[in-house]
Design a protein that fits this description.
The structure is a homodimer of 200-residue chains. The first copy, chain A, is mainly alpha-helical. Chain A has nine helices and two strands. Chain A has a two-stranded antiparallel sheet with strand order 1-2. In chain A, helix 4 crosses helix 9.
């Protein structure tokens, strides 16, 4: 475990915590006080750190997505779990039907189930925009939907390029969790660029 | 205050907390026990809720962005404050220079300052992707940058359409904070759509 800690740059106490929380499988026991940790443990540890530190997942959410990686779930099932894990739980009944209608207008022609966490989260965001008097009469949000479709298409192209099921499923999970952080980061860089082009 | 609570659907205790934290300006005192709250208070209260509940801002971050709305900061300055408020603080020295180089390749031709929080956050995400063995040999992340530019252009078009400085600045703040939530929501809906098109 000391070696695993050094190689991964994760403190021993944190590794023990992940073991207790069943995020990381136990090492192979060698003696009463020693266990063997191999490269699958190192890979899993790096994945846990990426999900929690950069993706901002809770321990419980990280456990859910790791479980789906280890299961034989299909890609659509994996997406559903990954999406739920990174989304705030919202009940359709807590939303204003007018906001759901407005989202469905933006998603017209898309195959999206009523309980898709993104559909519900988007309706909640529209409600918040509306609550502060921000409308999109000029098609602001339709351009977001267009950009979202580009991103999702890039995600799926990337997933399909992976060699086997395990790699595809891991890309679904990692891409879902880290992709949000990437797009928001790139958006801020792009905002500075476009602002600087227009105002200087 | 009881009326403000009823109209806004925000509990009195929460309103008092926002007053103490100086997010909400005090009402005009009428008697020792009564103050007058008008429609600017209601608007501000709705904005606070949108920033905190939907945008996920901390009290301190919400205060920063409200202060910039109330100042006479320029649009680029407002963007900088709004961006810092919604971003995890990252020091360039904590990042691997190779990840910063990789981001700068994605942003080639963009005017982005070295400390742009989005540039730093994106480099951190690339490091996390790399740490779990996820590469983008096929241009995955370049397509994210393209989508980010579309979104930022839509943001700026919307901001410029607002009638006056106060409205423009409020759109910068609200758009920066809520826009992240909207794009991640729409992305999840788009992922279900593209997945369903390809796998069924």
């Amino acid at each position: 475990m000391a070696e695993l800690s050094t190689t991964s740059d994760v403190p021993v106490a944190t590794i023990k915590y992940y073991l207790r929380e069943k995020l990381l499988p136990a090492g192979e026991s060698e003696t009463a006080n020693q266990a063997r940790y191999g490269s699958p443990h190192l890979d899993r540890l790096r994945l846990i750190r990426a999900l929690i530190d950069v993706g901002g997942l809770s321990i419980a959410s990280a456990r859910s997505v790791l479980e789906v990686i280890d299961s034989d779930a299909s890609l659509p099932e994996t997406f559903a779990v990954a999406q739920h894990s990174v989304s705030v739980a919202i009940e359709p009944s807590d939303l204003d039907p007018a906001d759901l209608d407005r989202i469905d207008e933006l998603l017209v022609g898309w195959h999206v189930s009523p309980n898709n966490p993104g559909r519900l989260a988007s309706a909640r965001v529209l409600s918040a925009f509306r609550g502060v008097g921000q409308t999109d009469d000029r098609g602001w949000f339709a351009r977001y939907a267009e950009a979202a479709l580009l991103i999702a298409t890039a995600d799926l192209d990337e997933i399909e390029s992976r060699p086997d099921r395990a790699a595809k499923v891991e890309t679904v999970v990692v891409g879902t969790v880290l992709g949000d952080a990437l797009i928001s980061g790139l958006r801020r860089a792009a905002q500075e660029h476009v602002t600087s082009e227009r105002f200087s």
